[in-house]
Amino acid sequence: MIELEGLTKRYGEKVAVRDLTFTVRPGIVTGFLGPNGAGKSTTMRMILGLDHPTAGDVRIDGTHYDRLQDPLTYIGALLEAKGVHPGRSAYNHLLCLAQSNGIPERRVHEVLDAVGLTAVARKKAKGFSLGMGQRLGIAAALLGDPRIMMFDEPVNGLDPEGIHWIRTLMKSLAAQGRTVFVSSHLMSEMALTAEHLVVIGQGRLLADTSMADFIARNSRSYVRVRSPQRELLLDVLHQAGITAVESGDGTLEVDGWEAERIGELAAREQVVLHELSPQRASLEEAFMRLTAESVEYHAHTGTPAPVQAWGDGWKRG
């Protein structure tokens, strides 16, 4: 279990993390979400003692990280897959970690096999692709067979098979009663993996709830209806007390009514329907709605201004 209480981190005048209090519990995969610059990586670094909090406290199974003996046997983490000496082989990298944490050498072979790197175990890390580097980082996190696992963007560089593999791995670790804490920018992947969500924005806690509750509270579900008898359908819906909103593509959107009831009403009034489809809320939509005011870096839509030659340099027209 990971416990944060009033955790705060300042860098000069900038507050990266502000008064975070939440608990990451065992037995489920907890997703950690937030826009770029929200403070996710800083929070994870403070959990591992890599950054010291300005205020507050963070404990791993009731103990501060720097007081853990053989910490890899308590918590395994993937924060930066490139944190490997480029001239060291995958095997020697893991062996060094094992020896410094009292882990038997046989465990090195086990995790290399588990992540699919046995065939390249003696090759130097500098020749590894991004995906292979991710697998090596995951192997290091698994090395001590810890009760707590923490992953920052674990699917970076992985192919579809690798993404499915890490998703299955995290779920199986949680099913064993372990604590699994994972951050990712891939909403579709997080929706398939996490059961609980912790969401932060500009360093503040925005949500600490189940996946289902988060989506239900922060997004919209509606029924999409399309008919060649559009005006007649609008009259029928209006007479039944149903409000339909016209969308830009000629379809209607209905909130608060089940698709079955709308279909039965249309059939009774002999209105032809070409589409009747429930639009379920998504994690991405819920996340965008909740964090809209917390995004630090906004991209602007539209066509970029042309670049023209001017004198000896370039200026934007």
TrEMBL record:
<dbReference type="Pfam" id="PF00005">
    <property type="entry name" value="ABC_tran"/>
</dbReference>
<dbReference type="InterPro" id="IPR003593">
    <property type="entry name" value="AAA+_ATPase"/>
</dbReference>
<keyword id="KW-0067">ATP-binding</keyword>
<dbReference type="InterPro" id="IPR027417">
    <property type="entry name" value="P-loop_NTPase"/>
</dbReference>
<comment type="similarity">
    <text>Belongs to the ABC transporter superfamily.</text>
</comment>
<keyword id="KW-0813">Transport</keyword>
<keyword id="KW-0547">Nucleotide-binding</keyword>
<dbReference type="GO" id="GO:0005524">
    <property type="term" value="F:ATP binding"/>
</dbReference>
<protein>
    <submittedName>
        <fullName>ATP-binding cassette domain-containing protein</fullName>
    </submittedName>
</protein>
<dbReference type="InterPro" id="IPR003439">
    <property type="entry name" value="ABC_transporter-like_ATP-bd"/>
</dbReference>
<feature type="domain" description="ABC transporter">
    <location>
        <begin position="2"/>
        <end position="227"/>
    </location>
</feature>
